[in-house]
Structures are given as structure tokens and as C-alpha cells.
Design brief:
The structure is a homodimer of 343-residue chains. Helices cover 44% and strands 15% of the residues of chain A. Chain A has 343 residues and is of the alpha/beta class. In chain A, the strands form 3 sheets. Chain A has a 6-stranded parallel β-sheet, sandwiched between helices. In chain A, helix 1 (19-26) crosses helix 3 and helix 6 packs parallel to helix 7. Chains A and B meet through helix 4, helix 5, strand 2, helix 6 and helix 7 of A and helix 4, helix 5, strand 2, helix 6 and helix 7 of B. Strand 2 of chain A pairs antiparallel with strand 2 of chain B, so a sheet runs across the interface. The first copy, chain A, binds a DNA duplex (30 and 30 nucleotides) through residues 10-14, 18-20, 28-32, 34-35, 38, 42-44, 47, 62-73.
DNA sequence: ATTTTCGATGATAGCGCAATCATATCGGCG
DNA sequence: CGCCGATATGATTGCGCTATCATCGAAAAT
């Protein structure tokens, strides 16, 4: 007889227990169950325990879809990165998710590749989930993307790049500065005839631009540039460096990623070139295998974990106090030239 | 005067355009706008165009939170992997997301580490989003996890492991078989005195068990085992191999991941041991850098992309026809011993 | 001409939850 | 003793959308 008062569940119902079911079992109002679960400090100890028991008894799993609609808080953060098949971004994903999940947020991951068009498409569907915050890789967005982000008025952190004019918050580093620093480093080592192998991606190109401007500051106007598609890979590095070495007398090759540099290293070894004696090689990223190659790869270390962590912190702060305006906050985490055995 | 009939938006409203706003601008009923956007084949061409214009004019972004609540379809798939900071799982994430996003699904990523407890916690919050499908790494789940998954009645694919008794669908390979195959391979090469360095993770332990059983089949009962914590890293490999080599005369060391093997390789080189002459080394995973090490690392290739792709395909099929029962479907994608220069 | 069919559109009613305000209870205090 | 404020709980309403059924006009069938 204990369900004699129940209306039959509508045909649209999902079948699993709802808040009202828990409430009936616990002998309280639905609202009290909601509070017991979300704001336990507002209910008495005894009620909280009764609700807890009722939850176990009914096997209730809260429906956060409904909760999000009712409260306009999704507890969801969108994280948009080009790829996870690259240890640097994987590290960012790992740390961002660690920091956010400890605060009860879940992550909606979007892989946007390296083109603004993909970013635009993915952002649209992401915004339709009404995330409470967004972490976005890069600062170069399409006009539509910028407009949508502004209209959404959602806390936002751009990462992995640098600009004076962020959409909201920014945690990253200057790719141009990286390029210039690499140029200075290699010039100080005495290298003069440079090859460059770069991925066809806007941030890699910025680093190349910085590198070239560094060369020009030293009066060097000549260099050989080859572009490769994404994703970068060892074979790309081998192929392009073979092309470069066949046609030009070079004493150093600079790569837009460690994996390309490893390919160059293979090519050099297959040609019997001593490294760095006859050919110096420079990578980017300081991936876990950079130190493991033989000879150990000189590279540029980017602290992806720091970027992810600070980005998450900034976002959490803003999501906790949405009124406190701190737009325009910019953090440059820098980088470090790691001088191993290939330069 | 054109808003004279509007009720003021309630204080709970979010401020952005809703379906009814688009409907008013387009001069149709809200339901027609919903259809024009989600089932365009059900509305006339002219209505569809008017709605399209109204959407642009209002800057409407659909609210899929509300849509999901109303339709009981979230268009969300939960993807639970131990970590993305490991190229094998990154590859899975990459391919699963590629396949799902092309069909309009978004991915809720969960990083569950290597313990059933974490999986349990994360699964609970994941289920509260009412995903349309779940991809779960591994087949060993806590009782509560199994119970919740069964109660949720959501299409599910377990990956990266093998069992006769999957919860629903399964795409993976047998870790024990990997271990046995590695044992046979090394035994056929003549190695007899083995060290094992394994991560403290249940699937790695299965591979160890398979390896040991392979040794025992050959009448070898002695071997040296060291466990390391997660995440595996080169320093762990170096440290544990140093310990092993100090105390035991070994002619081969088997590792539960390529990154550990690379550490072992460094240690061997630092001791002036020839590889594989004085010490053979075996990795697992065939990470991108395995072929790049010097000497190139012998390892076990797992086709993470194939696993991700097939898992996504199975899931899409089931989500499209939820009535068509195919529970119990199991796909073994196998593995391959990659015999490079360290064995 | 009348009925049937079908495509297109609209009206209504929830989906499951939390914001909000109303109500009840209780001890402390003038 | 009655009033006040704090604390605990409940009733109501609506978040924005889609399932469902009703309606309506026009073409097709009788």
C-alpha cells in the first residue's frame, strides 16, 4: 500500500529514482533532500542522516542536468586544446583536470586542432552546454569566436600564448620570445648557418618569426625554412632534414617540436654526422623523451603543469566570485633553454 | 511597442536569447523553431530559412542542458581513462573523440588513475550527467561500480583489457597473453635470467603474471621483480634497474612501459653494459619514442587508435538503436611483439 | 462532392531540480 | 508573558526545452 498515493510515472520519465522518491522514503520534502545533498550545513544532523539512508535505499543518483537547468550552474568547465596526442598538452589537460575536479567541476574536453575554423565549430557546441568556465588554448581566434565568447560572459582563461589584449584572463608565454632566445643561444655557441623545420601551426610560426628576428639582429639574413603538417612526427623531421642537408651546408637545425628534432637526430646519425660537432639540433617542449635521446636533446622547457595549474586557479577564483571583476589579468610563466648535448 | 506583450524576464533567467525569442522574431511557434534546428526535414524550406535568419539576428545559442532534460538525451559520452599523460591513452582519447564528435556527441573526460576507488568516485559524478554512452578503461571494477553501471542501463564499452564476462561491450586485448608472448620471445632469444620492473597497476600486474607463467612453462622458476609507483618514469626505471643489477646477474629486464625501459637503457649505458649483448631490455606500448632511442627499443605494440575507433563505433551503433541488444560483444584487437635492437 | 491521407504547424504539459519566499519551532530576553 | 531573531523545513514556481497530441489546409483517393 505504500505506493497507493503515487501517480503513475509519465511515459517520458527515465525510470530511475528522483529527488521526490528519496523525499518520500526519508519522510521529508524534496527541497529538504536537495539541501541535504548540496548544502548539508543548512539541515539538521538527524535529517541529513535520514536522507542519506534514503539515498542508499533508493539508489538515487542526482540528475545534474536538471540541477544545472534549475540553478544556471553547470559545474562544467570546457577545456579546449589542439590535441592530447602531444605530451605538452596532455600535461596541461592532466593538471587542469586535477585542479578542477578537486573542486567539484567536471571537464568537457574539446580537441580543436590548429585551425580557427575547428575552434569555432567546437566552441559553438561547447557553449550550448552552458559551462561555468572555459580554458582555451591560444589567443588568436576568429571574429565570430571572440564575439560568442564575449556574449557568453563566462569566466575564461586563454593559455599557451601571450598578448596584451586577452579576452579575459591569460596564462602563457611568448612564442616570439622563445624564438629570439633560441637564436641568441645558438649564435652564442657560434652557429651561423641555420635550417628551420616548423609545423604549420600559428604558434610555431610565431616562434620561427622570433628566431628569424633574432638572427636579423645579429646581421644574419639567410636561413632555410621547411614547413611540415600536423601532427609533427619523427618521419617528418627526417624527411625535411634530409632535404635541407642535401641542398645546404648547415651547422644547426631548429625544430618546432622535440619529436621533429628526434627525427633530425636520426637522420644525422644515419649520415654519420657528429652531433653537435657537424650538426647542432634544437627541439621545443622538453618532452619526457628529450632527455633520453642519445645524445640528449637540447630544447626549450615549457612548464605545462604550471600553466594548467595557474589557469585552473584563476578560473576557480572567478567562478567562486563572479562579481569580482579581474578581466585583463595576465600571467607570463616564461620558458627555459635546456642546454643538453645537441647544441 | 514590439515588446509590449512580453512578460519581464524572471530574476532567475540567464539573459541570453531563448527558443521563444527566436520564435517571436521568426513569427512561428517555439516548437517549430526546435524542429527547424533539430529535425529540419520536418519543416518547410521557407520556415527553415526564416528560423535560420531569426537565429542569427538574436544570436541564439541553443541550451542543450534544457534540451537534454526534456528529451532524456544528453548527446554526451563519458570517457574514463587512467591518464592522458601516457601516449597510449592519449591516442585512445584522440580517436574516440574524433569518431564521436563527427556524430554530434561531446565527450566528458574522466581521469580515474589506477585505483578502483577513484573510478568509483568519478563514475558517480559522471553518471549524474546522464551520458548517452560510456567508454571505460579496464574490466576490473568495484562491486558498487558494476552495480551502478548496470542500474544506469547506458550503452557501455570497456576497453584495454579482456574478459569473458564484460558488462556490455568490450574492445581490448589480453594482458596475460602479452606477458606470455614476451616470455616466449625472450626465451627463444636465449635469455634465462630475468628482471621485471612493473608499475603498481592491475593491468601491468596481469602482464607480469602472464610473463611469469610463460617462464614457468619453460621450467624457469626464478626471476627478480620490482614494483614502481605510477606514473612510471625514466628515473624509476633507472633506480630499480640499478638495484637489480647491483644484486643479481641478469641478462634481460622486462618493463611494464617504454618509459621505464628507457630508464633501464640509460642505466645500462651508464654502466657500460652492451645492449642487448650484456643486457636485453623489453618495453611495452611502442610509444613514439621507442623507435627513436639508441639502440631502438624492443617493445610490444598496442594499437590504441584501433581500440578507440572500434570502441566508438560500437558505442555509436548502440546509441543509435538502443533496442537492438548486443550485450556481450567482445573484440580482441591483439598486440604485436616489436623486435628492435634491445633484445 | 466527400472522405481519406499526409505534411506542416501549434498548444500543452512536463523533464527533475533549486531559487525563493512562507511557515513553523524554539530559546533568549526585556 | 509575549516578542524577536535564528534555525529548520516546506510549498510553489519556473529554468528552456522537447514529446505528444491536436489542428488545419491541401492534395489524393473514392
Amino acid at each position: 500500500m505504500d505506493d497507493s498515493g503515487d501517480k503513475p510515472r509519465s511515459s517520458r520519465s527515465t525510470g530511475s529514482a528522483r529527488l521526490t522518491d528519496v523525499a518520500r522514503v526519508a519522510g521529508v520534502a524534496p527541497m529538504t533532500v536537495s539541501r541535504a545533498l548540496n548544502r548539508p550545513e543548512l539541515v539538521s544532523e538527524s535529517t541529513r542522516l535520514r536522507v542519506q539512508r534514503a539515498v542508499l535505499e533508493t539508489g538515487y543518483v542526482p540528475n545534474r542536468v536538471a540541477g544545472a537547468l534549475a540553478s544556471s550552474r553547470s559545474r562544467l568547465v570546457a577545456l579546449l586544446v589542439p590535441t592530447v596526442a602531444h605530451s605538452l598538452f596532455a600535461e596541461v589537460v592532466q593538471t587542469v583536470m586535477g585542479a578542477l575536479s578537486s573542486q567539484g567541476y567536471q571537464v568537457l574536453l574539446g580537441l580543436v586542432g590548429y585551425t580557427p575554423e575547428q575552434e569555432e565549430t567546437i566552441l559553438e557546441t561547447v557553449l550550448s552546454r552552458r559551462p561555468d568556465g572555459i580554458v582555451l588554448t591560444g589567443c588568436r581566434h576568429s571574429a565570430l569566436t571572440r564575439q560568442r565568447l564575449k556574449a557568453a560572459e563566462v569566466p575564461l582563461v586563454e593559455i599557451w600564448d601571450m598578448t596584451d589584449d586577452p579576452l579575459d584572463m591569460l596564462v602563457g608565454f611568448s612564442h616570439e620570445a622563445v624564438g629570439r632566445a633560441v637564436a641568441e643561444h645558438l649564435l652564442s655557441r657560434g652557429y651561423r648557418r641555420f635550417g628551420i623545420i616548423s609545423a604549420d601551426d600559428s604558434r610555431a610560426k610565431l616562434r620561427v618569426a622570433g628566431f628569424v628576428s633574432g638572427l636579423e639582429s645579429a646581421g644574419i639574413g639567410e636561413y632555410q625554412l621547411r614547413e611540415v603538417g600536423t601532427p609533427s612526427s619523427m618521419p617528418w623531421g627526417r624527411e625535411k632534414s634530409a632535404e635541407l642537408l642535401d641542398r645546404h651546408a648547415l651547422d644547426a637545425i631548429v625544430c618546432s617540436s622535440d619529436i621533429l628534432a628526434l627525427g633530425v637526430l636520426s637522420e644525422a646519425q644515419s649520415r654519420g654526422l657528429t652531433v653537435p660537432g657537424q650538426l647542432a639540433i634544437m627541439g621545443f617542449g622538453d618532452s619526457s623523451y628529450a632527455a633520453a635521446s642519445f645524445p640528449a636533446l637540447s630544447t626549450v622547457r615549457i612548464d605545462g603543469a604550471a600553466i594548467g595549474l595557474r589557469a585552473a586557479e584563476h578560473l576557480l577564483q572567478r567562478m567562486a566570485q563572479p562579481t569580482f571583476e579581474r578581466a585583463g589579468q595576465v600571467l607570463d610563466v616564461g620558458f627555459e633553454i635546456v642546454d643538453r648535448d645537441t647544441t
